[in-house]
Amino acid sequence: MIDLQDIGWDAAWDQAFAPWREQGCFPGRVALEDKQSFVVVAEAGEMPTRVAGRLMHLGRTSESFPKVGDWVALQRKPTDSRAVVQGVLPRRTMLARKIPGREMAPQILATNMDVAFVVQALDTTLNLRRLERFLVMVHEGGSRAVVVLNKADLCEDLEACLREVKASAGETPLVVVSARTRRGIRELRSFLANGRTCVFVGTSGVGKSSLINRLYGDEVQATLDVREHDGKGRHTTTWRELILLPGGGLVIDTPGMREFHMWLADGGLDEAFPDIASLALGCHFRACSHVKEARCAVREALATGALTAERFASFEKLRHELEYLGKERREHTYVMRRRASRATRREAFEADSPRSGWGDPGAH
Predict the structure, then answer these.
(1) How much is the pTM?
(2) Are strands 240-244 and 26-34 parallel, antiparallel or unpaired?
């Protein structure tokens, strides 16, 4: 038997679940997702599940289906070895990116996390622009972000690296760790508590699975060494998995991502760049573009060196990318609605039109 509070259940979830309980369902949390196969943790323990046909029919987008971290409503017949997911409870937080390719849709990596550990390695792969990109989407998803700098034992000038990272991380907490020497593991553990969920995100080779192994105290996640010639990691996690830590708390490991395409963001950009958001409040014009307007506080900060050109260029790049995504999403939504409207009208026309009798066996 499992205490649901150990895996994140609380009074608010219990209240949200009330309508499902009236339908004879019991709650569970998605622990593993591999294509259309799921493992859910409930009071009775782990159990394989499938999605109800009704939910499959109603789910028009991939984000409608269960993801790791979701709380779901389950039913199971005594003769059935698998439980059936009848519904997904509304998500509190989530981490998403744009699905690779031209399709305008999000790919949800994990849900209902309290903390998101954004992991970077203190080696040749350290990338401040990529760090800012991750932070935008973590803030947008509603989780508390923590920057984790792994492989401190490989860093030749730690103080210089920390200054650069702090300039990009803004007010986000920062933890320096080493999975190899165990440095900083206790500080990392302090962000976790019983029932609290965290997710590890980052590119391949930064050591996410190794850090989870340290937190767990055992080899629960497979790891592979980084290639020596280019410092890049090899994918070792092929699905997202929810892991209950012996000391309390849960972690979600995500696959290493060589690309992290931005998805739509509203307030996440300002939260990831609080310095620029604060400066913008001092601009004379409320809708200042920080390009040529008079009395622009951001441009004044650039002129005095209070704001670096690299930091502002990264902000502008992400802002333009999000604006483009918003425009593309609106156009995509308009086209899909037009297609759905035409299909509805065509179906109505065909239903009202009298048959000609050709090909109808009962017409002759």
Answers:
(1) 0.75
(2) antiparallel
